Amino acid sequence: MNVAVVMGGYSDESVISLRSGQLILNHLDTSKYTVFEVHILLDQWYCIIDGEKYPINKADFSFIKDNQNIHFDVAVNTVHGTPGEDGHLQAYWELIDLPYSGCNYYQSSLTFNKRDTLSVLSKFDIPKAKSIYITKGKEIDGNKIVTELGLPFFVKPNQSGSSLGVSMVSNLDDFQKALDFAFAEDHDILIESYLNGREVSVGVMNYKGSTKVMGITEILSQNSFFDYEAKYLGKSEEITPAHLSEEVQNRVEETAKKIYEALGMSGFSRTDFIIMNDVPHFIEINTNPGLSPQSIFPQQAAYSKMDFSDLLDNEISLALQHKPIWKK
């Protein structure tokens, strides 16, 4: 079976994706699969073999080597951000009838949009921060936002990952800078109230037909919140398993499962919460969680004593079972 491990992307998260892809390459069982490293970048798509690049034909996601046209049987998607976490690649693979790992194009698009995810989850009574949605070019009244949300509050791009473009505003003098930072990532932003509590991240996946919580990790950031620097540049401590009471642990696990199933998820995911007054409040869900050596999901897999090669076998099995809506 020819397996494409697809990594890269068009955003600043591509560097993290390339690290995640290497972990997958290192754990796929080469006695079962013929594994190919595929990079999807803004300037080109290519398969890399022994340091040489072979352009990907976008008509059918194949490439030519030694006059032979090589096709893939399945794509393992580890592209963070656009186009691999926002539904674009998934829709393309559906059109060319190529099985792929993770959730489908609709769930990918939905969960990459923070506002729409919050809207869907509001129907399931999931606790969350208060929020205000703003589009670039509209009038923004900082005093009105403070009256509604209080200080501090967070300013976030509506569609972005790895905490890119996110700021915490403690004083209105810093508000414009935070707006500029967020609008540099997306024309739509979300302003959310501050939740004063413990931050945890929960890995969840569909494992052999059941929703499985991989573990709960508490995040202790050296910065004011779990920003890009804290996530990837060592400015945080991550404790797996989180030291929670049995009651709170059960509540976090049940809420994480409920969110995963309410959103119709499949594949690896990581859901972030703030636990305030022993209640987990939803922050966001990542459908292509980081898999670099510094990332949380692999830590949780190790804690759960799950062999990563087995988890990847499971992902490929789920991908092969998936059929596009038009074929059902």
Sum this structure up briefly.
The protein has helices at residues 14-27, 88-95, 105-112, 114-121, 142-149, 175-183, 228-232, 246-262, 296-303, 308-321; strands spanning 2-9, 34-41, 45-49, 52-55, 63-65, 68-70, 74-77, 131-135, 153-157, 167-169, 188-193, 198-207, 210-221, 236-239, 269-276, 279-286. The chain has 328 residues and is an alpha+beta fold.
Description:
- The protein is built from ten helices and 16 strands.
- The chain is of the alpha+beta class and 328 residues long.
- The strands form four sheets. The chain has a five-stranded mixed sheet. A five-stranded antiparallel sheet has the order 14-13-12-15-16.
- The longest helix is centred in the C-terminal third of the chain and has 17 residues, at 246-262.
- The chain starts with a strand and ends in a 7-residue tail after the last helix.
- The model has no long low-confidence stretch (mean pLDDT 91).
Tally of alpha and pi helices: 10
Give the structural class: alpha+beta
The biggest beta sheet reads: 5 strands, mixed
Count the beta strands: 16
Poorly predicted runs of 5 or more residues: none
Order of helices and strands: EHEEEEEEHHHEHEEHEEEHEHEEHH
- Global shape: globular
Span between termini: 24 Å
Radius of gyration: 20 Å
Mean pLDDT: 91
The helical percent reads 25-40%
- Spatially, the strands of the biggest sheet line up as 4-3-2-1-7
Strand residue content: 25-35%
